[in-house]
Specification:
The structure holds 2 protein chains of 2 kinds. Chain A is an alpha+beta fold. Helices cover 55% and strands 9% of the residues of chain A. Chain A folds into 2 domains: 6-84, Glutaredoxin, CATH 3.40.30; 96-233, Glutathione S-transferase Yfyf (Class Pi), Chain A, domain 2. Chain A is built from 9 helices and 6 strands. In chain A, strand 5 and strand 6 (69-72) form a beta hairpin. Chain A starts with 5 loop residues before the first strand and ends with a helix. Chain B is an alpha+beta fold. The chains are: A alpha+beta, B alpha+beta. Chain A binds chain B through residues 57, 66, 69, 71-73, 76-77, 79-80, 83-84, 96-97, 99-100, 103-104, 107-108, 142, and chain B through 50, 59, 62, 64-66, 68-70, 72-73, 76-77, 88-89, 91-92, 95-96, 99-100, 133. Chain A: Residues 95-227 form the GST C-terminal domain. Chain A: Its main location: cytoplasm. Chain A: One of its GO terms (molecular function) is glutathione transferase activity. Chain A: It catalyses: RX + glutathione = an S-substituted glutathione + a halide anion + H(+). Chain A: Belongs to the GST superfamily. Tau family.
Chain lengths: 236, 205
């Protein structure tokens, strides 16, 4: 398929965008990456006309445009990619029960774990920060159990290759490292969650991931700019 | 091999009802186990240790949890009367709207009805904006799923049924009026009269 048939509206620091890029890499799909620019003043993103037209409901990245059809919401996009490009390796498992398990943990990561990770950066007191960190660690404990059950001794949640749940959680590893460095704390601890710890290393060096995952230092620089904007936007 | 299907749920929960609609649509026989949420059963806690919530579908001893996950599982396991479209793009559109309903609409609707007086006007306005988006999406169609009910219609059951109940209980049309949302109101009429839904509505207590 010609590269200009598939466009991805996104931004390099966004974990949600990373998910889509990883999925496209797994399926060896060529695409045009249209990067939204950073906003001026206190806007995080300057939203392009194409973005506002393609995602009028949320006005958010990522948006995959296949032909002239826009698809929004990262996990919806990843499933779409899995269903359209069937020649590459499968992203979701084929068995309905295994798919349900993968979707369950993906929902847990989106609805519970990611918000707790984000609230570390937004915490307004040391107590709130500590509580958020404890939630993140607790979540990682649950995900360690999930990893052991899903991987069945293999390298990834999906087995031998990177799949749905690996992408859903793994896209946040960069930001997890940023949070650890900026707060001088270890959240993903090899002593407490050895399975996840080793998985994280394998994930980050996987061919589907390594060109898409930004370097931690670059993300830290971006995070500083981002937090400055967020603080300026909400006067206390 | 005969399938053993059990559903742990609560009669008044829209999330629980969604799963029942899907099972009935597919003609799947199941045992319904009513949970007392103030005194959750050991089985519920065993099958959903992470969230400890209903609904939980038990298929041949294997638990599936989270209503949207359950709906997709049901569609993939029992092939008759599909809930999701076959086409990947249409499927993506359906999943998008299901997520929109659960993540944006229902919290906003709940807020609109439970807000205190000084905050209620703003909450109602925000909920109205979201209902307008749904109104636009429905335009020209009998159901979100087209001619027949599909995933989005099943997930929108809170609007299809519960919203009317809440407004009636409050004694006023706070939010969903025929004047403001004619298409959505027409959809509700079609929805509650659709046979599989009709047989599956809780009494308006």
């Amino acid at each position: 398929m010609a590269a200009n048939d598939v466009k991805l509206l996104g931004a390099w620091p966004s974990p949600f965008v990373m998910r889509v890029r990883m999925a496209l890499k797994i399926k060896a799909v060529d695409y045009e990456f249209l990067e939204e620019k950073m906003g001026s003043n206190n806007d995080i993103l300057h939203k392009s006309e194409l973005l506002l037209k393609s995602n009028p409901v949320y006005k958010k990245i990522p948006v995959l445009i296949h032909g002239d059809k826009p698809i929004c919401e990262s996990l919806v996009i990843v499933q779409y990619i899995d269903e359209v490009w069937t020649s590459g390796s499968s992203i979701l498992p084929s068995d309905p029960f295994d798919r349900a398990i993968a979707r369950f943990w993906a929902a847990y990561i989106e609805d519970k774990w990611v918000p707790s990770l984000r609230s570390i950066g937004m915490a307004e007191s040391e107590e709130a920060k500590k509580a958020a960190m404890e939630q993140v660690e607790e979540g990682l404990g649950l995900l360690e159990d999930a990893f052991v059950k899903c991987s069945k001794g293999k390298n990834f949640f999906s087995g031998d290759q990177v799949g749905y749940l690996d992408i859903t959680l793994g896209c946040y590893l960069g930001w997890l490292k940023v949070t650890e460095k900026m707060n001088n704390v270890k959240l993903l601890d090899g002593a407490k969650t050895p399975g996840l710890d080793k998985w994280a290393e394998r994930f980050c060096s996987d061919v589907a991931v390594k060109d898409v995952m930004p370097e931690t230092e670059k993300l830290i620089e971006f995070a500083k700019v981002l937090f400055a904007k967020l603080r300026a936007a909400s006067p206390n | 091999m005969a399938d053993e299907v059990k559903l742990f749920g609560v009669w008044a929960s829209p999330y629980s009802r969604r799963v029942e609609v899907a099972l009935k649509l597919k003609g799947v026989k199941y045992e319904f186990i009513e949970e007392d949420l103030s005194n959750k059963s050991d089985l519920l806690l065993k099958y959903n240790p992470v969230h400890k919530k209903i609904p939980v579908l038990l298929h041949n001893g294997k638990p599936i949890v989270e209503s949207l996950v359950i709906l997709e599982y049901i569609d993939e396991t029992w092939k008759g009367n599909p809930i999701l479209p076959h086409d990947p793009y249409q499927k993506a559109v359906a999943r998008f709207w299901a997520k929109f309903l659960d993540e944006k609409c229902f919290p906003a609707l709940r807020k609109a009805f439970s807000s205190k007086e000084d905050e209620q006007e703003k909450a109602i306005e925000e909920a109205s904006e979201l209902l307008k988006i749904l109104e636009n999406e429905l335009n020209g169609k009998k159901f979100f799923g087209g001619d027949k009910i599909g995933l989005v219609d099943i997930v929108a059951n809170f609007i299809g049924f519960w919203l009317g109940v809440i407004q009636e209980a409050k004694g006023e049309e706070l939010l969903l009026t025929h004047k403001k949302f004619p298409i959505l109101c027409k959809w509700i009429d079609e929805y509650v009269n659709c046979s599989v839904i009709k047989e599956n509505l809780p009494c308006q207590r």
